[in-house]
Design goal:
Elements: H1 2-53, H2 55-73, H3 80-108, E1 117-120, H4 121-138, E2 142-146, E3 152-155, H5 157-173, E4 180-187, E5 192-198, H6 205-208, H7 231-242, E6 246-252, E7 256-263, E8 267-268
Parallel strand pairs: 2-4
Antiparallel strand pairs: 1-3, 3-8, 4-5, 5-7, 6-7
Helix pairs in contact: 2-3, 3-7, 4-5, 5-7
Keywords: Kinase, Phosphoprotein, Transferase, Two-component regulatory system
Catalytic activity: ATP + protein L-histidine = ADP + protein N-phospho-L-histidine
Domain Histidine kinase: 49-267
Amino acid sequence: MWNTNLKRFQQEKLIKKQKIDLEKSYSSLLETSETIKLANSTKDKFFSIIAHDLRSPFNSILGFADLIKTDLSEGRSENLSQYIEFIELSAKKTIQLLENLLLWASSQTGKLQFSPSTFDIAKVIQNVVQLVYGSAEKKDISIQIVNLHTLYVHLDEAMIQTILRNLVSNSIKYTKVKGQVKIEMQSDGQDLVLKISDNGIGIRPSIRESLFRIDRSISTEGTNGESGTGLGLILVKEFLHLHKAKWEIQSEVDKGTQFLLNFPQCVRDQVTEKD
């Protein structure tokens, strides 16, 4: 009887161990499957951008260049400035897309370095506004900066500029003609809070979470037919994560959207370290 109970106990112990091992193997397989799925989504997104989103602006530039050549050969000049303006705008959008693409590729391969330094956030905000001014002007959208003042922060300057450029560009894209985009900075002496808001078309709740996922990324046409890849917001999420920043989206369809960003413990009295 004792030997029988011992044998049964050993068998149950073995079965329990095998069950645990099987559960671990299954969990590992699921994790591997998700990794492969994400890698395939990333690859598909990359080729989609190259095949379509990079080709389109170049086709547009070549088309307007042909129109300029035709008009010049026929002695017409009344539309030249308009054609040049379209070429310039397409070139700027292509450069922004290439920058996002290169940053994203670097982040995927682990080559992107997180390099915080101390800088004046007000200058970065002003620089971003200058970069997107042409897109806003084309739609007669006003950009308002609230509470702009010198404020030193210790963050990755290039990443912060990319975050702001993508969010402000997005606001312009989804705001109607004669609308408004607002950038507001706040600080309690320790944290930096940035708000980017607009009175545009808003974001439907059903797609809000998908905006920041590479395997579900959605690109919707802007109010003036602007195209996009959805890559900018994915970069924004990655860069905010590297800064351990908190972020929140408040949006109402047909009324507008606000991105609220909180960067903790980053404010400095002045530049105190050699960067």
